[in-house]
Amino acid sequence: MTPQSVTYRVRTASKAAILAHLLACDADYNPTLSQRVDLLEYTSKLSDKAATFEAWEGSSLVGLVAAYLNDMERGHGFITNVSVLQRFAGRGIAKTLLQECVDEARRLGMDEID
Asked: 0.85 cut: is pTM over it?
């Protein structure tokens, strides 16, 4: 099977796609993400409350940056997740997704993002 090119989207991933991605990346966290959070609850929280910046290869979510960009009163955002499937590492995917997140935060008038 020939690899497809990576495409970028914002806020399109379903809960199932986010969960599948987090499960695929789980062992790459130290300690594993599943040791720190309940993945089903975390997935729901991301899907319901976070802005998601996504890298896709076909129908597979291969990169994800999730951020809470909803504290408009303080102008403050918080990046809660940065993950890229191991086989896609080194292609600049995380850098692109983080830049999209920062650009969105600026568009929203945020002064700070952690």
From this structure: yes
